[in-house]
């Protein structure tokens, strides 16, 4: 009987399988926190879309809040964080809150200002994250 992993690069596949089996507890724990944060972030994004008559406005606000929060968290967690908060909040909550797929979809509707919406989101996101990171570096003390 031949191992189903035994194909080209089978040694790498065996190493990956061993890592998941023997170090999987840490990986699964991280996956749980990312999933929980993602679910909460997605719910917040959905609630924002309900709060505004125009779903573009809700998506725009969700994306800007997400990049602002991510910018702050990058600095804060670098100085005071641990893996639990990093996984829960960055790829989890911020990843669930922000949405590139909705941005791409809305960009494809030129009658509704598609390209302008994309550029506005891009420019505002870059400005916000640059400002928030700069301010966070000034006001969040370095852990000693």
Give structural attributes.
6 helices; globular; 0% strand
What's the arrangement of secondary structure elements?
Elements (H helix, E strand, L loop, with lengths): L9 H13 L1 H28 L3 H26 L2 H15 L2 H8 L6 H26 L5
Topology pattern, helix = H, strand = E? HHHHHH
General shape: globular
Tell me how many strands there are.
0
Radius of gyration, rounded?
Answer: 20 Å
Number of helices: 6
Distance between the terminal alpha carbons, to the nearest Å? 57 Å
Poorly predicted tracts of residues: none
The mean pLDDT is 84
Given helix and strand content, the structural type is mainly alpha
Fraction of residues in H or I helices: over 70%
How many distinct domains?
1
Percentage of residues in DSSP E strands? under 5%
Biggest sheet layout: none
Task: Describe this protein's structure.
The chain is about 80% helix and about 0% strand. It is mainly α and about 140 residues long. It has one domain (about 10-140). The model has no long low-confidence stretch (mean pLDDT about 85).
Q: Brief description of this entry?
A:
The chain has 144 residues and is mostly helical.
């Amino acid at each position: 009987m031949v191992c189903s992993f035994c194909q080209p690069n089978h040694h790498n596949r065996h190493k990956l399988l061993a890592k998941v089996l023997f170090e999987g507890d840490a990986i699964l724990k991280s996956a749980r926190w990312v999933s929980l944060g993602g679910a909460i972030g997605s719910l917040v994004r959905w609630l924002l879309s309900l709060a505004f008559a125009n779903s573009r406005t809700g998506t725009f606000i969700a994306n800007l809040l997400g990049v602002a929060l991510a910018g702050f968290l990058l600095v804060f967690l670098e100085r005071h964080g641990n893996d639990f908060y990093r996984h829960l909040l960055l790829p989890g909550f911020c990843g669930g809150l922000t949405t590139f797929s909705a941005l791409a979809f809305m960009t494809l509707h030129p009658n509704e200002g598609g390209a302008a919406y994309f550029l506005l989101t891009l420019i505002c996101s870059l400005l916000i994250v640059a400002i928030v990171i700069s301010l966070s570096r000034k006001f969040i003390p370095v852990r000693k």
